[in-house]
Design brief:
endonuclease; alpha+beta; hydrolase; HNH endonuclease; globular; 4 helices
Length: 101
């Protein structure tokens, strides 16, 4: 039986073996998450998380997939990226997060 590609928990699209991908620490390593739970994401999805939220925000308020999916900028990104093929590659669109907000 052929193996199926893992599913990105952020966008819900399959992650083909040849697609850029990485593991995301739900609690950032520098904020107590070293050795903690990780999830496999498309690299474009992982980049968007870190372009949107600081390590402190991730640790404090966005340490679950449900919380990440509920963030307004990430929700808009998910709606956009879900229309792309599973192996889609892109530079992270938009401005980096605003420090201090």
């Amino acid at each position: 039986m052929p193996e199926t590609d893992p599913i990105c928990p952020l966008c819900g699209r399959p992650i083909p073996a040849d697609a850029p991908q990485s593991r995301h620490h739900l609690v950032p390593r520098l904020r107590g998450g070293k050795g903690g739970e990780t999830v496999l994401l498309h690299q474009v999805c992982h980049n968007e998380i870190h372009a949107t939220l600081s390590e402190t925000e991730l640790a404090r308020d966005y340490s679950t997939i449900a919380a990440l999916r509920a963030h307004p900028r990430l929700a808009a990104f998910i709606a956009w990226v879900q229309k792309r093929p599973p192996g889609f590659r892109s530079k992270t669109p938009g401005k980096r997060r605003m420090r201090g907000k």
